[in-house]
Every structure is written in C-alpha cells, then in structure tokens.
Amino acid sequence: MNWTDIEADLKKRLTPKRFRHTMNVIEAAEKLARTFGCDPEQARLAALLHDCAKNLTDGQQLDYAKQHQIKIDRVSQNDPQLLHGPVGAVLAKERYGVTDAAIQNAISCHTTGCQHMSTLDKIIYLADFIEQDRSFPGVETIRGIAETDLDGATIMALTNCICHVAQTGALLHKRTIDARNDLIIKTKNLKLK
Fold first, then answer.
1. What DSSP string describes the chain?
2. pLDDT at residue 192 greater than cutoff 80
C-alpha cells in the first residue's frame, strides 16, 4: 500500500481524535528525525502506523497476539491495550505491507519503550508523547529538551510515564522501567568515556 492508501484506511478505522493524534505524531516525528539524523520518511511511516492497532478491543488484542505468537506477559494479559504496539507492528506488515524491521520495531515499542532503543524507536516514543495536542504537567519541558537531547527527553518521558502510571494505580510494564534504566546507563557510560 502507498502512503495515500494507508492514510485513507486509517482514517476509516481510527476515531477522529485518534487520527488527529496520528497526524500530530507524524509532524513531531519528522521534526525529531531531521534534528537527530534519522530518515524522515522512515519516521513518518512509523508515526503514521504507530496506532494502527489502537482501535482493536482488548479481546481482539489478545486474540491477535496469540495468533501471531506475540508474548503475552501477566501485565499485558491484564491490560491488553499495552499490546497495541506489538500487534500494530504485525498489522503494519500484514495489512499495510511494511517490511522494514526498524519501522516495525518502532511501532512495537512505542507504548512501553524497550531496552536498546534505536534512534527511530526513541523518536516514535517521544513524538507520541510530545505531539502538539498533548497537555500534561512537564510536557513543555520535555518538548524543550527534545530540541537538543533525544536521550534526555526520552528519559524524562519514560520517567513521567512511570510516575503517572504509579500515581493512577494502573499497571506498570517492566519494559518501561528497563527502557529508562538502559538509557540512563548508556548516557552515564558515554559521559564517563
């Protein structure tokens, strides 16, 4: 499928609010890609498809994950919407013909983050977090840091997510903690060299 076909299909499948969010994530991802030396077209396509599975119900997320051998851990079993990233990566390939593994991985980990995040992974995670319609305490600070420090902004976004999830009493996925710790260790090691 080409860009126009994918966009038209998503416009039918997503709510108007979710589709507007997707368009905003594309804009943020393209800007981040240009700033941090990532392929803007790759970032745009990953951003376009990052929520392609968001419209699926909890039951559909679980069924799709089982059918495609996506690991369903205890947290995801109890909060199936956390699966919309990994399920979306499979949908990107099967429904939309995206074979680029980097794009699939960025879609897969955009919800929770993951260890060893690539530049593209961080861009999609962060673009989803700071797109222009997002409004929460600290978002402006993260947007400002994102202009010059991708790792620092991603660490702040992960930290913000962890605090928010903990404060609301929702389930916190271990991948988010692992992603944050991994980035902190990497940035500390870079400073020590």
1. --HHHHHHHHHHHS-HHHHHHHHHHHHHHHHHHHHHT--HHHHHHHHHHTTTTTTS-HHHHHHHHHHTT----HHHHHSGGGGHHHHHHHHHHHTT----HHHHHHHHTTTT--TT--HHHHHHHHHHHH-TT---TTHHHHHHHHTT-HHHHHHHHHHHHHHHHHHHT----HHHHHHHHHHHHHHHHHHH-
2. no
